[in-house]
Design goal:
14-stranded antiparallel beta barrel, mainly beta, two-stranded antiparallel sheet, 554 residues, 25 strands, 53% strand, single chain, elongated
């Protein structure tokens, strides 16, 4: 399909070409090393912490009194009147449902996890005007554990069309050797694996998958497709904070958090070109491996004000997490094409039907800053009977930044600010004490989709916005809404020892594209090729957790 692309699309692709040249000049070993979808992935958050904290959906910004609240408002450390140590384990049951082209599959994973430990030390007595507490601990705040498989039927375009359109028209195929001088790694892989060929005349590229129809060879899309993904990884936060209690009216706090990120993924994509009742069985295959590790640091400050015994108001701010990242990646591509002909129009011998290529195993080091967070909180405490609390959390995803190891900004930052905006989270929590030793709890939270570009979140058909993923990986994912429903109970066995249980159910939507939209750079508008993406797979990740925390006060 040859149509005239939008001016904005052409500007975006042109900016990437310029960015590619700058990447090569700065020594980045592959073009399009990071993309906006990758930055969004590494900025994800989930509800982590103690069973008590999570049983109320994390609505602790104005409450404190739990070490995990250091992630909502560090001033909550000032609420403690004694020292405490706690540890948490989880049983996790994850269900991943993938729906694509009318079919749906579900993949389940169960595991037992150690998810956190915390210590709070109390300095000063409760009857003094000022007391100071400190806290330190670790908690697992995110799991990347996921696998799914999708399969579909006929597609209008192939990933070979996508690669052909991405390839600069005047590029010289003799330079397609993974050095990034004229093209991306995906172009180099696609050409060397036999997916694309240069057009007659030496300008532009096209898919190799041509088949005879009505006496003429025409480019066909695949007759069927399949995609497999497996992800593993985690984010652990290591927290240290100080909290001050001033006359039981003002509580002030500050925290520092070190984040450890690990993400690993393997993907396999195949297109089949089966025609003439099985007489032709050609194919294209692509495998990608990516491993990313990161270390980050952020700082939080907060305050809680108690204007009356029953009312608490909290405000806190957390800086972006400044990450130092390192990604290793490699890819393998292959094709089997039985309809090739030589320069004289004669069929090629069978030993030339199969072609393959593998990228070098390479790495890239870079910097990333995740969104900062602002939290406003309100709680009403009814003595020893119970309480209600609410948190509002604001994150600006449009402020995510990517830089190379020398601090030079990536061109992706412009598109992140154009495509993504604010993410809003509402947390509600409640606790009821029917007897002095027993507490019953419940909570709910809802998180909005941070995409602000309306065209980017048109998920019902082909992608309307060009998105550049990482390296030789054409696949990418965009976030949707999520919500969490929680409940639990706590029981104080003795004056010092208590136990808490929490049930957490999280439902998260996202949308996965096997490849995106792409426009060729032909100077003749009549010849510009605009490749339409397949509709995205609609993913639903459901995570049921049973958490248990044991705490000892002294």
């Amino acid at each position: 399909m040859r149509i005239k692309p939008s001016l904005k699309t052409m500007k975006k692709i042109s900016a990437y070409v310029i960015g590619a040249a700058l990447s090569v000049a700065s020594g980045v070993p592959s073009v399009y090393a990071q993309g906006e979808a990758d930055a969004i992935r590494y900025s994800r958050t989930e509800l982590g912490g103690s069973a008590r904290f999570r049983s109320m959906a994390g609505a602790f910004g104005a409450l404190g009194g739990d070490f995990s609240a250091i992630g909502q408002n560090p001033a909550g450390l000032g609420i403690f009147r004694s020292s405490e140590v706690s540890a948490t384990i989880d049983f996790s049951s994850i269900s991943n449902q993938a729906a694509w082209q009318g079919s749906s599959e579900t993949f389940n994973k169960n595991k037992l996890l150690f998810t956190g430990i915390g210590y709070v030390g109390s300095w000063g007595k409760a009857n003094e005007d000022v007391s100071v507490n400190f806290g330190l601990g670790a908690k697992r705040v995110l799991d990347y554990e996921r696998s799914f498989r999708i399969a579909g039927g006929e597609q209008k375009f192939s990933v070979a069309d996508y690669v052909a359109a991405q390839t600069p028209g005047k590029a010289n195929p003799s330079h397609f050797n993974y050095n990034g001088l004229e093209s991306s790694w995906l172009t180099d892989l696609g050409y060397n694996a036999g997916w694309i060929a240069q057009l007659p005349g030496g300008y532009g590229f096209e898919s190799i998958f041509k088949y005879k129809q009505n006496g003429e060879y025409q480019i066909f899309g695949p007759s069927s497709t399949a995609f497999d993904l497996k992800e593993t990884g985690h984010v652990w936060n290591y927290d240290f904070g100080l909290g001050i209690n001033i006359q039981d009216t003002w509580y002030l706090g500050a925290s520092m958090t070190y984040s450890d990120l690990q993400f690993d993924t393997n993907t396999f994509y195949q297109e089949n070109f089966s025609f003439n009742n099985g007489a032709i069985n050609d194919y294209l295959k692509l495998e990608n491996t990516l491993s990313t590790s990161g270390s980050g640091l952020n700082i939080g400050i907060g305050a809680i004000y108690r204007p009356a015994d029953a009312v608490r108001i909290g405000l806190s701010y957390y800086t972006p997490t400044w990450y130092w990242m390192k990604s290793y990646y490699r890819a393998y591509g292959s094709s089997y094409y039985s309809q090739g002909v030589d320069s004289n129009g004669q069929p090629l011998p069978e030993n030339l039907y199969f072609m393959s290529s593998q990228t070098p195993e390479s790495y890239n080091t870079y910097q990333m800053s995740s969104p900062g967070r602002f939290v406003a909180s309100l709680a009403v405490v009814a003595g020893k009977i119970g309480l209600l609390s609410m948190d509002y959390e604001l994150e600006s995803y449009g402020q995510i930044k990517l830089k190379d190891e020398n601090g030079t900004a990536y061109v992706d930052n412009k598109f992140i600010s154009e495509d993504f905006g604010s993410r809003h989270t509402i947390r509600l929590g409640g606790e009821l004490r029917p007897i002095s030793r027993l507490s019953l709890r419940a909570g709910y939270s809802h998180t909005s989709n941070p995409i602000k570009n309306e065209k980017l979140k048109a998920f019902d058909g082909s992608a309307q916005v060009t998105v550049f993923p990482m390296g030789a990986m054409p696949h990418y994912e965009l976030p949707g809404n999520s919500y969490t429903v929680t409940g639990g109970l706590g029981y104080r066995f003795t004056r010092n020892l208590s136990g808490d249980l929490a049930v957490i159910y999280r439902n998260e939507k996202s949308y996965y594209y096997t490849f995106g939209r792409m426009v060729s750079d032909d100077p003749n508008p009549a010849n510009v090729l605009e490749v339409e993406s397949p509709a995205p797979a609609k993913l639903t990740r459901s995570n049921f957790r049973l958490a248990m925390t044991m705490s000892y006060r002294f």
